[in-house]
Amino acid sequence: MKRLFSGMQPTGSPHIGNYLGAIENWIKLQDEYDALFCIVDLHSLTIDYDPAQVQERIYEMAAVLIAAGLEAPEKCSLFVQSHVKEHAELAWLLSTVTPISELYRMTQFKSKSDTHKKNINAGLLTYPVLQTADIALYKGEVVPVGEDQVQHIELARIICRKFNNRYGEILPEPQEKVSPAKRIMGLDGNAKMSKSLNNQIDVIEEPEAIWEKLRVAMTDPARQRRKDPGNPFVCNIHTLHTYFSTDEQIEWVREGCTTAGIGCFECKRVLADNIDQRFAPIREKARELLKDKTELKRILDAGAKRASEIAAETMDEVYRAMGLR
Ligand code: AMP
Ligand code: TRP
Hints:
mainly alpha; three-stranded parallel sheet; two-stranded parallel ribbon; about 55% helix; binds adenosine monophosphate
């Protein structure tokens, strides 16, 4: 089986964008690949954060992933990045073959430098080198991600290629596998759903909170509506219906919206109920797992153990090739 790797930052509770853009895909792929999934705590240090919350967030993410259907450690490995020290080690080695000009080109570096003007740290710039190390450490060939990460995977290929040219064919060039839901928009309707923009609905959100957020969510932007009156396809609520509602309900929305037969309130109410119904079992199971963390600890320990074994082998090979052993 081909090796697959992906990661998610524990910067907050996983939201609908993470779920549709990554988690759902991960669950499907765990059957088809030798899969390693990583909670990338080291990456999450590159923007302002509260050290007192890190552990809680890691466990919350692990709980949602397991509750949603990742079968670790049986079908895949789930682990925390900083538990396998080789990630930071390989990132350093790879930084010596990474052109700094490539790092400055990254869209994510530019946008995060913009939104976090008071904290443009070196880690924010070298972030894609650590991401490359994550994948290369396990000789990952396939990397499922949302659209926003494609540029980082392209750079990972460049870095692996440069390494191989200089030191021999050791690191496979990874290939991204973009999820069908590649870019879920936030509730503001004009930027991708993201924890840092606070425009998200979390997977384990309570029903009342889902409704409160949806109630005031943007529908179709007025500018679009003037250009294209009555077209439900420009409305983010309609888009969300396509992920959470039945075919009949989607048709009801389409028909009702174009003929003004239903109002936004009604349309949102149905969506809120569907989101709640879809996530209720995950929410319950995740809460259960978080009550007593023994099971989560067992899963993460088993993941780190397996990951460490593979990582140690790769590092040995890399150190030798680079002349350090
Ligand atoms: P992050 O939360 O930035 O660590 O992202 C974890 C995974 O979720 C990555 O594969 C992202 O591409 C994906 N992702 C995050 N936000 C969205 C979104 N709004 N739509 C689709 N995928 C997303
Ligand atoms: N940078 C990714 C994100 O924000 C998370 C990540 C870290 C990742 N390392 C990775 C994704 C390796 C895929 C492979 O979404």
